[in-house]
UniProtKB/TrEMBL annotation:
Cellular compartment(s): Secreted
Molecular function per GO: heparin binding
SUPFAM superfamilies according to UniProt: Complement control module/SCR domain
Signal sequence, start to end: 1-21
Keyword Repeat appears in the UniProt entry: yes
Task of the protein: Binds to various kinds of negatively charged substances such as heparin, phospholipids, and dextran sulfate. May prevent activation of the intrinsic blood coagulation cascade by binding to phospholipids on the surface of damaged cells.
Keywords: Disulfide bond, Glycoprotein, Heparin-binding, Repeat, Secreted, Signal, Sushi
Disulfide bridge map: 27-70, 114-141, 209-252
Gene label: LOC115011058
CDD domains: CCP
UniProt organism field: Cottoperca gobio (Frogmouth)
Domain (Sushi) ranges: 25-85, 86-143, 144-206, 207-266
Stored SMART domains: CCP (SM00032)
One Pfam family this sequence matches: Sushi_2
Name this protein carries in UniProt: Beta-2-glycoprotein 1
Length: 352
């Protein structure tokens, strides 16, 4: 009984010794550098075991050796094996577009874009694969096209360039015309847009305007009491010394109304009796201004006197539709000064 008890007490110690000594001088599964791989799932290796190393898919081995050995010390021999990413060839250029990439190694990506007015045929991205090739071919950037421009009833279009086939390229334009007596209502210019559509098509309509009205103090080139066609014009003029302000002619517009009429502006009288003035670059006495009138928008200068400095200076005033404002600084001279002492007038003394 005593012997059995002794063996029982020794048994745990013996079992523990067996378990703990099972992995003495063995190598654990090695810790490998990035992108190096090892087949299998085995965790422990006996001394003398050799392991062949390889690179993960998409990587290429450089340096060596490509195997390690489990030493008696339980350590693996050293290796300088490196696995670098495989390289893809430089991508071809993209006509009428751009490509963007940072590198050409495994898993790198290229992004393709087309210039404005072009549309892409093919994939817009490509990835460098494990075998060193790109996942897709370089796409193509083809011009955006439209069909033929729509033609309104009673109309036609004249293209800016010769068109062949059933399509027109982006940016190609044309001008619409209508058969008489129809007129283009809307924008006469059309263009194939980057969306592949034509700009809005105008209409062909008969457009007329009522007989135009005359202007005050003026006359018209035509007094025909009839309807006028779209884009027909009538010219205006003014009587006597009246000046036409605005456009010389009016035109029948798309909205069936005439464009804005001009007006006739009246001349002005220089309302002073005794003085010398500056008009059209000449100094003249007021009585020599015959007839006493200046036209609309014309400028007259009258002379004022700086009494402190005893010098004269000219002040401009402009005729505006029959009104010419005499400057406040102007003083009408007396008859004696004007007739007998004209050399003392502001227009004749030293100018400031």
């Amino acid at each position: 009984m005593e012997r059995m008890l002794t063996l029982f007490l020794l048994c745990p110690f013996v079992f523990f010794t067996i378990v703990t000594s099972e992995h003495d001088n063995v190598c654990y599964r090695p810790m490998l550098a990035a992108n190096i791989e090892l087949d299998g799932l085995q965790r422990f290796f006996s001394p003398g075991v050799e392991l062949a190393l390889s690179c993960k898919q998409g990587y290429t081995p450089v340096s060596g050796p490509r195997k390690i050995v489990c030493a008696a010390s339980g350590e693996w021999t050293k290796t300088k094996l490196l696995c670098i990413p495989k390289r893809c060839p430089y991508p071809d250029t993209l006509s009428n577009g751009e490509l963007y990439y940072e590198d050409i190694v495994f898993q790198s990506m290229i992004n393709y874009t087309c210039d404005e007015g072009y549309t892409m045929t093919g994939d817009s991205t490509a990835v460098c694969l494990a075998d060193g090739t790109w996942s897709t071919r370089v796409p193509q950037c083809k011009p955006v096209t439209c069909g033929h421009a729509p033609i309104p009833q009673f109309g036609m279009i004249i293209y800016d360039k010769r068109i062949s086939g059933n399509t027109t390229d982006h940016g190609v334009g044309g001008t619409y015309k209508c058969l008489p007596p129809y007129s283009v209502i809307g924008n006469a210019r059309a263009e194939c847009t980057i969306n592949g559509n034509w700009t809005k098509t105008p209409e062909c309509q008969v457009v007329t305007c009522p007989p135009p009205e005359n202007i005050d103090k003026g006359y018209m080139s035509s007094n025909d009491q009839r309807e006028y066609d779209y884009m027909e014009t009538v010219k205006y003029g003014c009587n006597g010394d009246y000046v036409l302000e605005g456009s010389l002619q009016i035109v029948c517009e798309q909205n069936r109304n005439w464009s804005e009429k001009p007006s006739c502006k009246a001349p002005c009288r220089v309302d002073i009796k005794k003085a010398r003035i500056l008009y059209n670059g000449r100094k003249i006495w007021i009585e020599d201004l015959s007839p006493n009138r200046v036209l609309h928008t014309e400028i007259v200068s009258v002379y004022c006197k700086d009494k402190v400095r005893n010098c004269g200076f000219a002040v401009q005033t402009q005729c505006i539709d029959g009104k010419l404002q005499i400057p406040e600084c102007f003083e009408q001279p007396s008859g004696i000064d004007y007739n007998l002492h004209s050399s003392s007038l502001p227009s004749e003394i030293t100018q400031c």
